[in-house]
């Protein structure tokens, strides 16, 4: 008898998930897709040359690369 109730519960949950439609924040989606939040990333990448130079680069095999 337990299997019938278990299957019914799974069916109910699956149906709720299938037809659930949350409110969509289209403004946040637009900001994410247009890359408005990537300004901070670009700033950090421009500072990267200050932290590392070609002379300091050592490959995984232990040899310096130019």
TrEMBL record:
It comes from Agromyces archimandritae. It comes from the Bacteria. InterPro entries: DUF3073. This is DUF3073 domain-containing protein. Pfam families: DUF3073 (PF11273).
